[in-house]
Amino acid sequence: MTVRERTQNFLQRIGDRSELNAFLATNDQGALRDADASDERIAAGLARPLEGKVIALKDNISFKSLPMTCGSHILEGFKPVYNATVVERLQNAGAVIIGKTNMDEFAMGSSSETSYYGPVKHPLDPTLVPGGSSGGSAVAVADNMCDVALGSDTGGSIRQPAAFCGVYGFKPTYGRVSRYGLVAFASSLDQIGVFANNIADVADTFAVMSGPDPMDSTSVPQPTSANEPRPASANEPRPASADESRTADPSHNGDPFARAAKRVGILSRSALAGCDEPILSAYDAFVDRLRSTGAIIIEVSIPNSEIWIPTYFILATAEASSNLARFDGVRYGLRAQDGVADFMTASRTEGFGTEVKRRIMLGTYVLSTGFYDAYYKKAQQARRLISNAYADIFKRVDVLALPTTPSTAFVRGEKSEPVQMWLSDFFTVSANIAGIPAISIPSGTDDAGLPIGMQLQGAMMQDEALLAAAAAVPAP
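The structure assignment produced for this chain is given below.
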């Protein structure tokens, strides 16, 4: 098929499955124009690294051809005037941008239920949530609406929906991918990452997006891995190239994608006490598959894991309360028609949803006089403890294996109590706190046929090695 035909098929699929509410806007004419350009370059032998790859963007990533709402009423109809760095790099590599995906409002949620434009529905059962906050991107990939989708991961917002929907979800090391053009939720935790149905697409997309960016002072000077051979996953249907075939051979030490994990850390049963039985069974099977690759399995303990959730939510809400102060009705977005003295309050009251208001209030509280030292300062100290614990673990093992989520996808509306919802991110928030890379890997299903994801976490800046380890995991 030509790129145009594939793009037309994806657009048709998006329309046919509109009841899932995965997309907020599609780039019909622009995508077809870019598809035609890709076909011409392919025919001329001038294909670029992602030529003709059809990619969707979470609706908090700036793309000047389409509105950017962040799933919120306050930005309804807002159209950005510049592209995010990742968008520029993807388009320069030949990618076709097909549209913007639905999300929890300002990425604040774990179920994609808080979007002002309606919840995203699970592709296998519309009564279930797809996970969040990047639920639209996960559904777009899982339901064959695009090749790849980008999301943002602040505390698991890529990996958790990837697990619920049965696709790969990768959060890179903090700073490996530019955040310029990503609407900030919590600036020290946010990272743009990738959803795909195979590890090669994850690696190719990451290779193009990564690298330093003068527009983002938090991007690290690690050079792009765009010229490195990509890993081929063990269950990928296409034949592997010569470069990809040798990734399974750990003797190729010069190849950064050939560093299959030799030492894998696993958690004890007591550390998995909050998991449902299907997750525990899938974890045991996942460890067995890792063992079958020749990896040495080492049981490790992560000290202070009980502080992961409170540390994350203090840091994240504090940063959110500051970042969202810019949405005041003055410069852009919704402007309420109340009197001059009250229009900022009125605009924010009308424009923000319940979960966003809850987090702004909590963040403002922990930063306020008299509570800053008691909460925010202690959370920063706890962050250092968590980072140090991971550093110690990765002196003993190459990667750490753990569940992505404690359960499979749950019924929409089931978790109405906020803390109960927040606990669904228990196994994901620590990677953001420590800034390390992590990936969710499809790992079978439960008795009801719902997808289960298992997670590998790696040492800081060892993204390519982590992708190699994920590629080496045999299919369930």
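Interim note for the steering committee: The domain at 3-304+387-472 is CATH 3.90.1300.10 (Amidase signature (AS) enzymes). Residues 235-258 have pLDDT under 50 and may be disordered.
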